[in-house]
TrEMBL record, chain A:
Single GO MF descriptor: thiamine pyrophosphate binding
Name listed for the protein in its UniProt record: 2-oxoacid:acceptor oxidoreductase, beta subunit, pyruvate/2-ketoisovalerate family
A GO biological-process term: cellular respiration
Key words of the record: Oxidoreductase, Pyruvate
Thiamine pyrophosphate enzyme TPP-binding domain: residues covered: 51-205
Family matches, as InterPro entries: 2-oxoacid:Fd_oxidoreductase, THDP-binding, TPP_enzyme_TPP-bd
Source organism phylogeny: Bacteria, Bacillati, Bacillota, Negativicutes, Selenomonadales
UniProtKB/TrEMBL annotation, chain B:
Pfam families: PFOR_II (PF17147), POR_N (PF01855)
An annotated Gene Ontology molecular function: 2-oxoglutarate synthase activity
Lineage, broadest ranks: Bacteria, Bacillati, Bacillota, Negativicutes, Selenomonadales
Organism from which the protein derives: Sporomusa termitida
Protein name, entry field: 2-oxoglutarate oxidoreductase subunit KorA
Keyword set, alphabetical order: Oxidoreductase
Amino acid sequence: MDYLATKYLKTKKIPSTACSGCGLGQVHKKVLLAIDELGLATGDIVWGTGIGCSGRQTFNTWQGDNFAGTHGRVYAIATGLRLALPPEKKIVLTVGDGDAFGIGLLHLLHSVRRNVDMTVVVADNFGYQSTGGQYGYTTPSGSVTDSSPYGMQDPNWVQDGRDILDILRAAGAGFLARHTSVEGQNAVESIKKAIQFKGFSLVHIAYPCITNFAGKALGSRKPVVAYRWLKERTNPAPDQAIDGITFRTGIYHQATAGRPEFSEQMRNFTAAVRKEGQHETNGNIG
Amino acid sequence: MKRIFETGNAAITEAAIFAGCKVFAGYPITPATEIAENMSRRLPQVDGYYVQAEDELSAMHICIGASLGGLKAMTSTSGPGYILFADPYGWALGSEIPVVVVNAQRVGPVSGITGAPGQGEFYLSRYPTHGGNFESIVLAPNSVQEAFALTVEAFYLAERFRMPVTVLADQIVTDGWETLLIPETPAEIEAMGLRVQPRRINYGPEFYPATDEIDVPPVVLGHNTGAACSDWTPTAEGFDTEEIEWQHKHAHRLIYKVRNHKELITRYEEIDTADNPEVILVAYGSPSRVLKSAVKAAREQGLKVGGIRLVSIWPFPDEAFGRSAKYLSVELNYDGQLVREVQRAAPKDSDIHFLGRCGELPKVAELVAAARDLINGQPLASIKWQREAW
């Protein structure tokens, strides 16, 4: 990972233990590029991760401060941490699709509702790959996986009129973007905007799993097959006939008027209560 | 000294604030809800934050996050919520992050009876998370005043041992109204034996020493020390590893930092035990108050009865049970939980019995009668699951 690795990553965690050909490195590099282009230093960011492929591979790679939560709970940890950290300190979380859109969806939604200042990068490899390749919440409809040997029957969050980003937007998310790992600078620009956004922001990035998803659902463990598959589904032209899932990428939503940020609101509220003279109020404070 | 008439819930709230708690995150549940309500009123007055979480998993994780950022934090719940702490408890335990957990025990199993006292989480409080390879610290108050003192102590122990500490109360203690004295001067604080440990910061690079050492500052994020902590087995620097050798060091530390400093934790009260009584009543929490009256009443009737009241529960104070005697464990459950530990700890020639009630306290006369029966060699069982030779 060239100069970015030297500048931002712990050498003990290089090389990554990711499978050969894994697209997670592309996602990780985009986040580091965004941080670098924003001129941020290691002390500016506390980095959190979940478990699974994206959590395990990105945990404690950051030279600054790190934490990893159990599957799906990292948003709640980040909510508490936000209260304790100075407002200018940024929280970046790299999590998987199962973490964000499955087991952690409740906590994610409530972080959105509260507008907790954090940037969630969902590194989406289309299912549970570190446990051997079971289907998840973004697995393309009908895919053959280790837990859907006849093709996935369970509706996902990203097809047939459903979009998880719609739900997050409805819950109040101020910045939402979607990309694939085969994209370049436009994905970096979205991550930069997400990190700069004061409030909850999320960037959903699809990347190929070679070992499990490609091996089962695409029928080949050749990286070229998986990357071609992802590339031709990334913003296909209208005249391209692509079956199944496709990815419309870019900024999905950027709020024009900012909602109050959680920790700022809490600090203001506490200050107002103290100013009132330490007695209960009628709730009109803040 | 401030003297007020208040509940155990209020005592726990004031104690947390006294100890420097700045964040409370909780989820409403009877009978612990009042702690949350009290915290929502009190914390903003002292520059603290109250967060009503979406569930117990979130509540304790928010507390962990706040503690990771350097703020002391507490959560509270009752039985059905306590089991949901299993996930975050493990995280705080493994990452060695201080946090205080209050459980106002009610009648179980599951939702049971919401507004009546129980003691069903004795063992759950010993193993409140998965995976084993750890010791837990649990304190059990039996009055409003003691709820105050032990909550302050829980914060103190959490900081020194850098781990979650549970205050295992019950509904009578948390909902009961009694006089509460809150110290205001250093002399009063000292007289009450209250200890407060400020938060320190681990500047690393060592995440933990692979020894039983305590007073190791916890990881606090945001100081750009390159600190790391996670739910995975850590190396000394906090890197995640799959190596058994590191897991062994980590487990050794989690177990022996508690076991080898047990004297800082263990508290119990012996009542009339100097003359080696024939029967020793054993209890913790609110039943222990009936026990005290029962010992007094039995002595007045010429029965050689004593009592042991446990204040700290885990690590279990085996040393309190060195005497051979007929022990009667008095508990707010029907299955007998404390009695099993008494049986394990007491000398082999002891005779171990159990008297269980749930949802209400046993009566003094009932305990005296049971003690008399034991002294006379009479069987206890009137209703099999209530009184049973163990």
